[in-house]
Each structure stands twice: as structure tokens, then as C-alpha cells.
Amino acid sequence: MGAYILRRLLLIIPTLLGIMVINFTLVQFVPGGPIEQIIAQVQGQGDVFEGFAGGGGEVASGSGGGSDEYAGARGLPPDFIEELEREFGFDKPPVERFFNMLWNYMRLDFGESYFRSISVIDLVLEKMPVSISLGLWSTLIAYAISIPLGIKKAVQDGGPFDTWTSGVIIVAYAIPGFLFAILLLVLFAGGSYWQIFPLRGLTSDNWEMLSWPAKIADYFWHIALPVIASTIAAFATLTLLTKNSFLDEIKKHYVMTARAKGLTERRVLYGHVFRNAMLIVIAGFPAVFIGVFFSGSLIIETIFSLDGLGRLGFEAAVARDYPVIFGTLFIFGLIGLVVGILSDLMYVLVDPRIDFEKREG
């Protein structure tokens, strides 16, 4: 297993390199870079050229070129355009900027946001609590509901309970997360019905003044509706996956043998079937968490006015804030690859009979 993990760790390097090369190359052909946006702002505000600081230093990303390449730059002093290029590092060729970026990333230096005067790492850490809250609680709740519900549906397969719960699950899976979020706001956050939960934010304005029990209660009060909205799709998928896994195991010969020996149904289900049936469900926990962590967070965060990584990525893409785009891409790509290794380790932990080295051989 050690050799397998080492190979997977070594594969992270070329995989991350490929991700960065592809995305850096694509960015070179995207119009409307940060310099063009600053030129548009300056022209809209008048001749305000002095005292500008891009805040990015020599950040190796974005689209370069001379001052003649910038649309809408007529009438602006060439010195101003050259100063912008130096501030953002666009006075260097793309290949040099790319290798400078990689060298900085190897030293865990992800640069500074062009427009926020804050380092990329600090910006990610600032937004991380919101996304972790959504991802972690949504995943835990989905598992807590889906596993017992899926087991009960498998045991009563074809019965009334299985039928009506399947209908509920299908409806839950079909409802888009953003539509369900809006419905929750209308019903429970001061829409047309009840004002039970707050409309926005992760905590109240007076959160710092609250006692620790009150802070915990306030936190869960604010996060309740966003978590429910982001849980709905994962809950439906996991329930059906759990049911199908149990149905596959229940039909196998070892289950019939256990029943023939006189074991109780509970002992058969939780002593023999559970471990095999839950292999794919439990081992997939890291991947499910990362999926909820990354996917769909933008819409949920926007609807509930939460300032998380989803909105950060969207705003960085719109503003062409290349240090934030490439820094978060590198960090999240690394997290995703490490989580893939953790998922394999979870398989081995749940079922020690699995040996990835023998499978590769």
C-alpha cells in the first residue's frame, strides 16, 4: 500500500502541472484583462493617473502585450500603460510569467489580489469558514439521513414505505438547489409567510458580544436554511445508492447462510451485510464532501448573502483577478487530488481485503 500511495503522490505533480498549463494557455486568449478594466475605470473617472498601485506586484498570470494592444486606451499616456504592465507583471513574455508563477507556487507564494490589496492565501482563509460550513454540515446531514433511510427502503423493498419515500426522493432530486433555496427564503425567512430564520449572513451583527452557547446557537440559526438547500440533492443520491448496495448484498449466498444458521435479521443486516454494502458509501465520504464543498456553492451563497469561496471565484473571474483565479485553482486542484488518495485509503480502512497494489499488478 505504501508504494501505491507514493505513486499517487508523485502523480499529483504532473497532474497539477497539466491543469495549470491548460488554464494559463486559455487565459491568454480571453479578452478584457485587468489592465483593460482599469483603463475603462480610469477613463470613466477622468484623468486620475497618479498614485496608482496595482497591488499585484510581479504576478505571473494574465494576458500581456504592449500598450497598442489595449482597446479603448486612446488618449491615455503611454507611461501610464507601461506602469500598469509593470505593476501586473505583463511586461514579461507569457512563458516567463508562467514559470515565475510555478516557482512562486512551489514556495507557497500565491501572490496578492489585483484589486483587494490582500494575499490570495489570506483571502481564501477569510472565505473558507462559509464554504466549510456548507460542505461539512450538508455532507454529515445527508449521510445521517440517507444511510438509515436507504437500509429501511432495502429491507422493505417494494412495500408501501419504499414506494412513497421513493416518490419523495425523486421530487427532491428533481428540484434545483437554487429553487429550493428561494422556497425556503419565502417560507421561513420573512417572505410571504414566517420570519423564523435570518435572511443573510453566517452570524449576527452582535456575534462578538454573545456568550459561547449563544454564539453556537446563532451560528446554527444562520446556517440552517443554506445547509438544508445544499443537502437536498446529495441526500437523494446517497439514499438510492445505499438502498441499491444493500439490495445487492442481501441477495448473496452468505446472507442466506447466515439466516439459515438462525441469526436474527438485525444481526444479519448490521453484522454481515452492512460492512460490505456500506463500502462504496462510506469510502466515498471525502469525495462527497468535496463535491458539496465546490459544486453549487455560488448560487446558494448568493441567495443567502454568504461570502464564501463560490462567490470569490465568480467575482475573481468577472474582474479578471488572475492571482486569485490561478491561486485558488492550484489550491483546490491539490485538495481534490489529495482527497482522491484519501478515498482510496477509506476503501482499505472499511474493507482491509482491498489491495490496490495487487490490482495494479
Can you walk through the features of this model?
By secondary structure, the chain is mainly α. It has two domains: 97 residues, no CATH class; 197 residues, MetI-like (MetI-like fold). 70% of the residues lie in helices and 0% in strands. The radius of gyration is 26 Å and the shape is globular. About 6% of the residues have low confidence.
Topology summary:
Elements: H1 2-27, H2 34-45, H3 78-88, H4 94-106, H5 120-155, H6 160-174, H7 177-188, H8 212-250, H9 253-260, H10 265-277, H11 279-283, H12 285-294, H13 297-303, H14 309-319, H15 322-350, H16 356-360
Mean pLDDT: 78
Shape: globular
Poorly predicted spans = 46-68
Q: Provide the CATH superfamily of the largest domain.
A: MetI-like
Number of helices: 16
Distance between the amino and carboxyl termini: 12 Å
Characterize the biggest β-sheet.
none
Given helix and strand content, the structural type is mainly alpha
Topology order in helix (H) and strand (E) letters: HHHHHHHHHHHHHHHH
Helix content: 55-70%
Would you give the CATH topology of the largest domain?
MetI-like fold
Strand content: under 5%
Beta strands, count: 0
Using only C-alpha atoms, the radius of gyration works out to 26 Å
CATH architecture of the largest domain: Orthogonal Bundle
CATH class descriptor name of the largest domain? Mainly Alpha
Keywords: Cell inner membrane, Cell membrane, Membrane, Transmembrane, Transmembrane helix, Transport
Organism: Salipiger bermudensis (strain DSM 26914 / JCM 13377 / KCTC 12554 / HTCC2601)
Membrane topology: Multi-pass membrane protein
Pfam family, one: BPD_transp_1
